[in-house]
Amino acid sequence: MNAAARVRREKVRIQAATMFEESRSTAQIASELRVSEKSVRDWRKKWTAGGTAALASAGPGGSDCKLAADQQKQLAVMLDDGPVVHGWDDARWTLARVVELIERRFGVCYTLRGVSYLLHRLGYSQQVPTRRAIERDPEAIASWHRRRWPSVRG
């Protein structure tokens, strides 16, 4: 969830606090704010224990990254160098290879899913390689398209 969404949700909770002060029912608050009654009950419990301040946003969720900022930069450089430089025999990064690279270089253990989140956070995306024959001849393909394709197409 981004910062703007967190702020919107916090505003809704603050509105609920105002309604709690007016002794409105859970069902009425849920209907008016378009949230579940369970959320309203949870908010009311927090509000009763700590007031409106207890409904403030706790900040972004999730755990902190296991790699420091400089380690993340080093990892990005290593990934850009390619897997062959780091001992693999083909030019494909897999999550398992990135896990192994991080563990070897930084001594930090990640799960495959954790590495997937980390790579996304660093700006990398999953790419599926296009399968092309090594013997591919672009000139022969272009010639076929010029000469043969019109008769095939009809």
From the structure above, extract its key features.
154 residues, mainly alpha, 2 domains, 8 helices, Winged helix-turn helix domain-containing protein
What does it look like?
There is one protein chain. The chain is mainly α and 154 residues long. The chain has two domains: 3-55; 62-154, no CATH class. Helix content is 59%, strand content 0%. It is built from eight helices and no strands. The chain has helices at 3-21, 26-33, 37-50, 69-81, 95-106, 112-121, 138-147, 149-153. Helix 1 (3-21) crosses helix 3 (37-50). The protein is elongated and about 80 Å long. The two termini are 54 Å apart. Residues 89-146 form the Winged helix-turn helix domain. It comes from Paractinoplanes rishiriensis. This is Winged helix-turn helix domain-containing protein.
